[in-house]
Fold:
Amino acid sequence: MSVTRKNLLISGAVFGAALAGASGAAVAADQELKIGVVGVLSGPAAQWGLALKGAVEFVAAEANRDGLIKIGGAPYRVSVVAIDSKYTAEGAAAAANTLAGQGVKFIIGAIGSPEMTGVKPIAKRNSMLVLGNSYAKDAIGPQWPLVFHVGPGPSGWADPIIKIAKQKFGMKSVMMVAPNDQGGTDIATVDADAYRKNGIPATEEYYQRGTTNFAPTVTRIMNAKPEAVDLASSPPGDAGIIVKQLRQAGFEGPIGRLGGPGYSEISRVAGGDAVLKDFYWYEPVVIDEKSQQIADDFKKLLGAERPENNLFFQWVSGARMVVKAIAQAGSISDTEKVAAALRALPVTDPNLGSGHWIGKEFFGVNQELSFPFGIGLVTGGQLQPIVRVEAATGK
Amino acid sequence: MQGIVATSLIGISLGAQYALLALGFTLIFGILGVVNFAHGGFYVLGGYIAYSAVSFLGMPYALAVIAAALGTAALGYLFERFLLDRLIDDHLATLMLTLGLYMMISSGILITFGPQSPAFAFPLTGVLRAWGFYVPIENLVVLAVCVAGIVSIYALIYRTDFGRSLRALADDRAVATAQGLRPKVLFPTAFALATGLAGLTGALVTPILSLAPHVGDPVLATSFLIVILGGLGSVSGATVAAFLVGMVEAFSAVYLGGSKGALALFVLVLVMLVVKPSGLFGQRVRGA
Structure:
């Protein structure tokens, strides 16, 4: 094709139109704040990931309803991009990479320790702000200035739960049972230390993640004759089978699960509260009228029931804090500015109450949200009202 | 001594469940030459069919188990007849097809039932206790059905014309076909038999453990491990290896702990592959 003036004009027009389209698209894309969710959406721990995803979608819907995000006076629509991390470090790293590729600067999640291990280096490399969970000993730290903790790990809440369990059940020894990866061992060791500090000798027993029949593990537990068993961060599906098989083996002692919520599924898999018999666990929130309001609003905004797992409420409070910090910082790209705004925000939620920033003593940084939490109890096969405990401080 | 007997009981119980699963897996490889990556999917599907039949249709559990076996067998038949059969001699294609089917089954279940374990309990509860031992009644029932299933499969394969036809096809398809045997009829039937076994095991075992969309993953891994240990395609090998794996899993987990126990199993397979690459009862590597 020869280069003529006509061809040049046509090419110029096409090129100009393409540029205009592209810049128009860029303008349209700039009006959107994308929040990434990295969480386990399949497998035995999916309940946790669905709670996370539901919570962030709810907070995004709230922000859109209230027109919360305005940058330079222009309203921004909040959208959520959720990716299944499959509860693995590599799955979470891949998810974080995908989000980075889409220009996402804020990640809510991940949940488990292996996932957070996968997310953090990618987030650091791409200056992403992360509000994660993970009960790992290095979940947050000075080396990860943009990584925040949605709630305390066992270092924040194990002690008061153990005190109440000891008072109720009077156990004199405990065996920790958890999966044999970082998601299991980090929590079980912190829990075990907390039991020891309360004068209860603790031993640790780990199983291969993916185990479906726990009869051999249960035999091993029975041979060790502990007075209590604590399932730490075993996924709810696993915990339910272990409880059932422990009771079948004749284990009469109390069973704890100081690793996160999941009572409903554990009870369902085990065969009901009568099988749980004496059971205690950590509840991230106390469901009262105010927190129930979140569930009602969820239904109104998203037209569905809120996710079953109570971690949902904790994620709602955490995601609200991040969105508030973005609004205050007035930037959807400068994550350091948003992190500074987040650190300066008072820890308060309209539904869950007030709390504190903690973590300095255990992690070396005060980037851990601490709200009031609850202790769940089943005694003699009867579900008891959740015991409310004030937000952990100074840990 | 008491500990050894108790652990042996666990090993036998695990072994019987594994045998029923591995028999189907090895049948498909032995007769069709296909490594069925959808085997775990049929196990989960069996569990969900039984759960749906009990929970939504109000069927008695025993009928629900039969429905699960028949349902998974029917799906297996259709899959082999209309999809797999077209590419039966292309190993890579059959691998991708079965893997794809597994993903479709697990995703379908995830979308339909959600990721959480539903309440699906075995109808019989209670535990028999004597001389310091305990056996849950549900485990005894499952063990009895598994043993009956294994015996029936043996009778079918070694005592009937249908079984002889399948073995002839496995031995030499060209000669068997020249003798008048029809792979177009026998292959889907064999596939249905194997997937029906996986569905039956799923319907039996998931109510005593747990039912969730992902529970087929370890089933596939264990079945694979067993048939490699027993010798790919060998029915006797799969049965012996299943009980061996059950015993090793039980004893190593009880006496060494969960992590080392899992390692022991893989060390056993590794040693077997070095010493006898064709497996316990495998005679030759199947030609491509």
